Description:
By secondary structure, this protein is an alpha/beta fold. It has two domains: about 15-180 and about 225-250, Rossmann fold (3-Layer(aba) Sandwich), CATH 3.40.50.720; about 180-220 and about 255-325, UDP-galactose 4-epimerase, domain 1, CATH 3.90.25.10. It is built from twelve helices and 14 strands. It has helices spanning about 25-35, 50-55, 65-75, 90-95, 95-115, 150-170, 195-205, 225-235, 255-265, 280-285, 295-300, 310-325; strands at about 15, 40-45, 55-60, 80, 120, 125, 170-175, 175-180, 180, 210, 220-225, 250, 255, 270-275. Strands 3-2-1-4-5-7 form a six-stranded parallel beta sheet, sandwiched between helices. Strands 6-8-12 form a three-stranded parallel beta sheet. 2-amino-3-ketobutyric acid binds near residues 180 and 192.
Amino acid sequence: MYPLNEELSMKNILIIGCAGQIGTELTMELRKIYGNEHVVATDLKEAPASIMQSGPFHQLDILDREGIRSLVKKYQIDGIINLAAILSAVGEKNPMLAWNINMNGLINVLEVAREEGVTRVLTPSSIAAFGPETPIENTPQETVLKPKTMYGITKVAGELLGDYYFNKYGIDVRGLRYPGIISHEALPGGGTTDYAVAIYYDAIKYGKYTCFVKEDTKLPMMYMPDCLKATIDLFHAEIKNLKHHSDFNLAAMSFTVGELAESIKKYMPQFEISYEPDYRQAIADSWPNSIDDTSARSEWGWKPEYDLDKMTQDMLHHIKIKHQNGEY
Ligand code: NAD
Ligand code: AKB
């Protein structure tokens, strides 16, 4: 699935934040590629059984720099993927928590990488790095970065830090500005784009959904298989081809909530949607409608596979099985 050039791959990878929406699936994909013992999974909380039973797992607080260091030494880690973060909606409820985890956590990762000779670090950014002054359609790679959320502020600072550690210390730090990620394996962790996941769960369980942003709210989104592919492909891209490092724009599809509901209605004609916008509307309104990801395409060959209807069919299929199995 992911052709791997020996020279581009790491030997032992540490994943921090493995139990979240992305980590739950990325950890297992990387274990398929590297072998279970070579992917060390960590999170503040316990991870799903699939992760804890298939390879090394440690409970680790990203704020514990010596804890990170001791795992890096123990497992001879040469690549770190940092997924621990407080996302936009939870971050606006508790901005100091978002600052602490997202910034002090990242600095711990980068400092351990520098001091212990870790070769490569991947730490995601987000469309939250953009703000209302950013061009809203086809947002360029190089553009205004004036986010209005604490989460977005930490993402911009994280991109700058990644490039700083690359230029000053030669650590190969890489990152992508993920759009909203949609998946059916693990629930999202408190972001603004969570409605695009919740809508499928409620469609199957109740046949209806009340959305916390308005019908015409349009955001860039991506289905998890494309997110995994992008992350793994960038992690293994040849460095000589990279002009960017920590801040790749990344796109797959963009749709309004109304269009998302119409897509579900194609397969569930009885589905109903209503709208009760809350504080997350302002966050969504500050983010772009669509993203220009030309740099990702030209520097490391990025190309998405899923569009809205293809994703909807797959999401409904998997969530229906979960519901039938009594999993939610
Ligand atoms: P998530 O909230 O689902 O998972 C984050 C994980 O970090 C959780 O398992 C949590 O337990 C863990 N964590 C929190 N505090 C920690 C701490 N102190 N120490 C160790 N672990 C801790 O997030 P996600 O959606 O998997 O996001 C992963 C990364 O991708 C984040 O950097 C996020 O900003 C970025 N991102 C995600 C999306 C998306 O739509 N999911 C979009 C853009 C960017
Ligand atoms: C959020 O909504 O906070 C995340 C993101 C786009 O970064 N899903």
